[in-house]
Amino acid sequence: MEAAGKITKVAVSPLESLHQHHHHSNPTTLSLFNGCDDARQIHARLIKTKNAHNNFYLSKLLSRFIQSNHIHEARLLFDHAKRPNTLVWNTLLKGYVDSGLFLEALLLFKKMRREGISPDSYTLPFVLKACGGSGTDVSSIGVGTSVHSVAVKSGLDDNLFVQNSAIDMYCRCLMIESARKLFDEMSERDLVSWTSMISGYAGCGDMEIAKLLFGSMGEKDIVSWGAMISGFVRNGCPDEALFFFREMQLCGVQPGEVAIVSALSACASLGLRSMGLWLHGFVVRRGLELTAFMGTSLIDMYGKCGDVDNARQVFESMPETTLASWNSMIGGLAMNGRTEEALSTFSDMEKAGIKPNSITLSSVLCACRHGGLVEVGHYYFEHISKEYNISTNLDHYGCMVDLLGRAGYVNEAYELIKTMPFEPNEVIWGALLGACKIHGNLKLGEHAIEWLVELDPHNSGNYVLLSNMYATLGRSEDVERVRAEMREMGVEKPRGCSSIEVNSIVHEFYAGDHSHTDVNEVYEKLTELYCKMEELGYQPSVDLQMYSVESY
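Now predict its structure.
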């Protein structure tokens, strides 16, 4: 697919130019909209001056109601209009789309067509955005395709903004080939065209083509850079995300919120606390607003990098906290073993009147799991789900199974699995198998591994756990049998890997690997630590060493 094409200036959005084309209006009446914020008062004055059915004033009044979050009143006003023109229809369509009421927008467009009102170049982008906003719903995709056909039949398919909106709609509906076909047929493209296509490929995971397109762009702006960086993060390529973030700066483009938040997410994935600290400093130096989006990303990054104190500092400095920021704070405390603080923060969240969701429940149960608080975990499992009408999911049950199993209540964990309202997945059985390994319950462990092999037959970790259980009990024949099964299934045990960040560089170490430049110093330090452990009474588990399934 050819990517070359002329880049023109960005098309003027209908969101900005909706009111640019209208008939002459009375300056005195028009001044009402500048001197009064109350839409109802303006409406009363328009009725008094006999201008209530003037389509231009009606359109501006609808906008005022919508801006005041009274979109239902705007609809009532629209329904009582005598002969609303396209401008009035477009205004209400815009209001629905801006408010995320995509279905209402599509129904309004259907009514518009039924009443014989011809759409214009401002109508179609709103409707296409509504189709894209509805995602991969089959009916929305059908409507989106039909709307594009309407554009072609109306002779509006050459309008740049209509084309860009159609590309965006196809990309959001994961119809990337349709989007690319339209993109390739465009006589001229702007930054929005290119960025929409790049985002589309990032959205469907094809980062190679996204990179090719990005490289073909003559002019790259903050949005296109942000699309690439966020695309790499979403597709599990944090290293490339940070590489592009640095390239963006070298090209003289100042990162915006999307790029910074994506870079923070990459740091969280890699455990790059120092880079995360630099990004935080960058935000402060630039005087950027600590929005809920930015603040939550910082909290998440610090939490995943083990710096809970900095996470707390960001949380407490946020001008406005959201459910997401509370969840990130509780989750960060939980994953770092700060159980009491996590539960205390949840209590503060309830006192602040913030209603928890399923993510909150997972974080609270994670805290209980790390703290071994079985009874407390039981309480929250029941209390939060019932009090706030949260449907429990597999993640919640996985936390409870792990919590019970780690505390030695292996049979109770199994009973909980049997009473689950849905089929357990590999995470649930894996948690049970792990508990069986810790507490030597071989019979139940074998039952768990049967399910795991059926659900996830190529996961070597399951075989290793079972093998180590047999090794603990001195059943070397069964250890060899598991190895044979792994060979027969083509399952390979990946080498163990650990990493550590030193001076902004992440060092990775694989089992049996001696390629690191400082390998001698590393092993000297390990020997030193091992000697100190022995002095403190540490005894290695010889049976596990003997029957390791690291290689065969």
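Confidence is low (pLDDT under 50) at residues 1-12, 19-24, 543-552.
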